[in-house]
Each structure stands twice: as C-alpha cells, then as structure tokens.
Task: structure prediction
Amino acid sequence: MKETIQMREPISWMEYPAWLEAFQQPLPENLAAPGEIAAFEAESFAGENRKNSPSFCFVPDETLGESYILERDDPGKITVRGGEQGILYGTYEALFDLICEKPLPEGIQTPAYSLRMLDSWDNPDGTIERGYAGRSLWFEGGCFSYDPVRIRQLGRMLASTGINVLCINNVNVDASARSLIGDLLPETAGFARLLRPFGIRLMISVDFSSPMAIDNVNPDAGRRALRTADPLDEEVSMWWKNCAARVYEAIPDLAGFLVKADSEHRPGPNTYGRSHAQGANMLAAALAPYGGKLVWRAFVYNCMQDWRDTGTDRPCAAYDLYKPLDGQFADNVILQVKNGPYDFQVREPVSPLLLGMQKTNLAAELQLTQEYTGHQIDLFVMPPLWREFFDRMGKEKISAVAAVSNLGRDENWTGHPFAACNLFAFGQYAWNPNRNPEEVIRRWIRLSGYRKAEEKLTAVLLQSSRIYEKYTAPLGLCWMVNPGEHYGPSPWGYEFQAWGTYNRADRNAVGIDRTASGTGLLKQYPPELALQYEDPSVCPDEYLLFFHRLPYSFLMRDGRTLIQRIYDDHFEGYNEVLRMQQTLSELDLPERDRLAVEERMQMQIHNAREWRDVINTFFHRLSGVPDQYGRKIYN
Ligand code: GCV
Result:
C-alpha cells in the first residue's frame, strides 16, 4: 500500500515573527541610523490600526550613550531621552510595554554589560557547527550570500532585545573563513554596513596561525606565508598590526576579534612555548589603536586524555591554566568563559573562573543552540537556568556576555518555534540579569502573538528545562549523550574516549569525587560555595553527581536512595513530556506553529522514552537494584 505523507506547505520567513509580531513591515533600506529606525518603528506602530496609541518624542542626549529614560507625562505622549542608540533601545522597550500592557520602566535604563554578543558558529560554506535551524543566514558556497531584507529583519530582532555585537563566523576558523579579513573583506564590510543602523557591530573569529596560511588572507605579507605564528616574533605582530589597520579601514566600528586557541586542535601560543596572555596581548595590541576588543576563549583542556588517567579532570583545566595569568592580560582583552567548567552540559555549576579572576575582564558564554539540550527538537527554555546562573556569577569583572546563536535559515529562524524565546531572553538578561524568568517568558509570549495561550504556555515553557533534565542527565551527571551528535542517550558513549568526559559508573557507585580529597575541583571555588558543595548531605541535588562519587544506596535528603531517585526522575520526566504534549495540543496556537510544535513533540516523546529506558536499564544492570515500584525496566 502506498503511504501518504502529509507535507506541510512551505511558508516564507516573513510569516514567522519570532517576537516581532507587531513589526512585520519591512524596514526601508534607506534607514541609516538608530534614530531613523526608532522613528520608523514608532510611526508604523501608531499607523497600524492602533487607535489611541501615543505619539513619540525623541530627545537626543549623547551623554546617555546606550542608556535611555522613558517618560509619559500625559497618556498621549511618550518621551524617549537617550544617546542615539539609547533612543532605539528605549523605543523598542516602550513599544514592547505598550503591546504587553505593562508600565514603562522608571528612571535611567542602562545595560548591565557593555558587550552583549551573539556568537554564530557559521561557516562560509553555509553550514553551521551545532546548528539546528537550517543553514547560515549570511554564508553560502564559500562567501556571503543573503537576503538583505531578512538581514535587516535580523538586525531589528537583535536590536529590539538589546544585543549589540554579532560574531559572524565559527570559532573553528577554516581556510575560507580566514578570507573574511582577506580577500572577502569588502563583502564583510558590506555586511557590517547592513547591520550598523541597528547599533550592531561585527566581531570576527580569527585563526591564530593566520600569518602562516598560504591562502588569500595574506595580502599584508605580499601573500607570502610567514614561517611562524609565534606571538613574540616581530614579523608576526607586524603582520597582525597591518591586518588590523586594513580591517579597520574597511570596518571602522568592528567590535574586535574572537579567538579559540590551543583548544580542540586549534593552533595557539602553546606551540611556541608562549602563554595565553602573551598570545592574547599580541593580538590585542594590534586592535588597541582602533578601540577593538580581543575576545579570547577560555575553553581549553586536554582533548587527548587517556581515559585510564583518573588524575586528570577536565573541568579543572581552565582554572588551572588561567588563574595564574590573572592580571597579565591587556585592558582590551576579554576572557570568554563558558557558564560551567565543562561544556554547556544540561546542568553545571557556575565556572570557578568566572568567580576567581579578579584582575581580568571576563565575558560569560552561554549556549542558545541546543547542542546538549535537545537540538531544538525537544523543548528547553533557558531563563530559569540563567536566573540561577546570574545569581551565582561574580559581578565585578564581568563586562560582557556572549551566547552561541540558535538561528538559521529555517523559515521560523530557530527550528522549534518556541526556541526563539531563548534568543529573546538572552538579550533581555544581557541588558538586565536580574529579571524574573516568568516575566521574560510571558513577555516573549505576548510579543509573539501567543497571548490566547499565555497561561498554559508560560507554565509549559517554565518547566521545560527541568523536565528535559529529569529524563536525560541524572543529578548533574554529564556526558551520557550520544557521542558526536549529542542527541539521545549513550551512558558509556563517552566513557572510553579521549575527551575527558567520564561518569565512572560501576556496580556500586557513580560519579567523580571532585572534592578536596578527590580531583580538587572544589578547591577552585570561593570558600562559601565550596562549603555548600563539598558535603553531599547539603550539596544541592542538581549538582550532587557533578561533585561527588556516591554509592547507589546513598540516602538523599528526601529519604530516597540515589538509585531510586535516578529511576524516579527518568520515569517522571517521560510522563511529564506526555503531559506537556497534551497541554500543548490543547492550546490555541496559530496553525503554522501548532503543526511544527506537534511534529517536534512527537520526536521529543520518542527521545524521552529512549532516555528513560536506556538510562534506567543501564543503572539497573550495573547495580542490580530493582525499582521500588516495580515499573518496567528492560534487562
Ligand atoms: C565550536 C564543543 C562543541 C564544538 C564547539 C566547541 C567550542 O566541544 O561540540 O562543536 O566548537 O564546544 O565551544 O569551541
């Protein structure tokens, strides 16, 4: 019998507003500055059948920069005071508040972090590393290739939520990406021009060994490759100075360069026996005359570890490397540190580096693209986790926040229509990390046109990360995911590999002892946190197996044994996915989203079932302990 597959009609990206439901009118190409965009947005908002919508009055005050003040002395008029960029931010804030029927914020509004960056992992060939929403929005076939109307809409999206820097290429810089600052520079500059009116500046990921490359990035050396990339070599630093001069001539407001060095086989200063401070400072010196920043990633560890080696513990690596360098980095270097000490796992404690580097500028790096959190198939809405993260994070030296983008060329921008909430929320938190997650989610829902579903959808989105955590990662135990693709369960998939990613489960116990008597990770934390984490009887459940190796018989605070809690979470997590599916199917969503959500929910149910059964079977086989309630575990 012939199977009939029901295909959905292709829909244009223009019909997917993300959170810009009220801002679908294409932005005219002649809008050249933030103030002009602000005026256009305010006028078109008033023009679109919105009777009684207030008029806007803009009062430029360059001393305010990105900050703004909103005043509404009479109901018919909103005054936006600010620097030119501040006026744009203030206008979006006021319009969003009008749409959401919320009062305007009082007093001066200033971003908590001056650099609020979206890091794309896009490659010039159009692929996106860890991308789950289609191909790149601006690269294809080795060069720039984009729809300017869509890129302007992207600029509007990013500016409306407060993002001010876009890193356009993958930190794993391939040969074609090296030409973004070489032969492709005029195109890079053209792309920068398109986003400039939104106050969005470009950042470019560069390859530390570029001076040695024989490809087209080398006009500075007469296309002659240098024999070294040693940061203390005069010719090398001159190469970078010439390069920066050329790049800044083409893109005067470039935010800077982003570098992944000595990490996962990328080149770096270690090859030459130089420190990361020496490597970063050499590049920073080239950017300094132009006010550029050098963002240096702290994601450095031994990815060739022997799994037999229990003395090396990957989460300790970044602190061990960078803490001794604190105070040695130039002023325009920013050390970009992933939120947790491992690698964007479902649940990690805050990275000790973010708490421990007192004399270095820091950026916290989050991951919107759902590499370990469900590939934008499973629902995983992040604000509740960020609330906890920002509460824990040391504030003093953190001047920037960055997040790996979840965008792509899919019509709805983010694959799962609700994944757009994470991008919106990132911008909101980057501006003000004290926000309440529920308010952020409600705001996104109202702006995105899901108001009819608001109550139930808010509840579902708020719980979604906790549910995913329940059926995947038990109690902070990481890396039970399928190696390589990072979707679906594989409890020992990473166990005998070189990536430093072990759970060391045996028939009696699971986890790694990271206390002072174990690998010592806890010694990297400030005493008050170390104290909280080091005693398993007070350590928060969600970090229990991150910091401790415990027997299956360990008694949790709620009276359950560890093994029972693992079984319970996996059974409950799956059941909660079923309930979530039921709730979502009853919501009044636009047809296009309803179909996409239902399709992905079916895949999520399948995934949750796999996780439940594989993880429970794994632990049951190892421990031999039966489930207290006699539920089905496969043997
Ligand atoms: C861009 C993880 C990912 C890699 C990513 C890397 C990084 O290891 O799996 O795809 O590379 O992190 O953040 O540099």
Notes: Residues 435 and 616 are 37 Å apart (CA to CA). Residues 121, 129-130, 170-172, 260, 299, 343 surround 4-O-methyl-alpha-D-glucopyranuronic acid (CB under 6 Å).
